[in-house]
Amino acid sequence: MDNERVVFLVIGVLIVVAVGQLLAMTGRRYLANAAPSERRSSGPAATLVAVLFHLMTLGVVALLAVVPFGGTASEGLLLRLGILLIALAAIFGVTMMLLGQRRQEALATEIETAHLVENDQRAQVRVNPVEPERVESWHDSPLGQRDE
C-alpha cells in the first residue's frame, strides 16, 4: 500500500469520527428538545443514527482507498478527499433527515398524549341535569282561559 492511500485512510477516518461524534452529540440535544416525555429515548435513537452514519461513511472511505485514480499521488489524495467530503455531506443530510423524522414522531406523540390527557380530564367532570321548574302558563289553565 502506498503512502498516499495510508494518508487518505488516516485523514478519512479522522474526519468520519469527528463528524460522527458531532452528529451524535447534537442529535441527542436535537431530539431531547423535541418533546420532554421522549428524553429517555432520544439518546439511544441518536446513537443508532450515529452508528449508521459511521458505518456508511467508513465504508465509503474504504472503497475510495482501493479505487485507482490517475495522476500524481497528491492529485489522487485530493480527489479522494473531495469525493469523501461530498459523500459525507450527502450521508450527513440523510442522517439529519432521519433525526428530523424521529423528532416529528416525538412531537406528534407529545401532542397526542396531551390531547388524550385533556380529554381524560373532561371525562372526569360530571354534569347532573337540572330538574325543570314547573312554570304555569295560560296553556295550563282550564279550557285555555287566561287569568286577567
Helix-strand blueprint:
Layout: H1 3-32, H2 39-66, H3 73-124
Helix pairs in contact: 1-2, 1-3, 2-3
Describe this protein's structure.
The chain is mainly α and 148 residues long. The protein has one domain (3-124). It is 74% helix and 0% strand. The protein contains three helices and no strands. The chain has helices at residues 3-32, 39-66, 73-124. Helix 1 packs antiparallel against helix 2 (39-66), helix 1 packs parallel to helix 3 (73-124) and helix 2 packs antiparallel against helix 3 (73-124). The radius of gyration is 34 Å and the shape is rod-shaped.
Mean pLDDT: 79
Q: How many β-strands, per DSSP?
A: 0
Contiguous runs where pLDDT drops below 50 for at least 5 residues: none
Helix content: over 70%
Beginning-to-end CA distance, first to last residue: 119 Å
Number of separate structural domains? 1
Apparent shape = rod-shaped
Q: Which H/E pattern describes the elements?
A: HHH
Specify Rg, calculated over alpha carbons.
Answer: 34 Å
SS strand fraction: under 5%
Main sheet properties:
none
Structural class: mainly alpha
How many helices in DSSP terms? 3
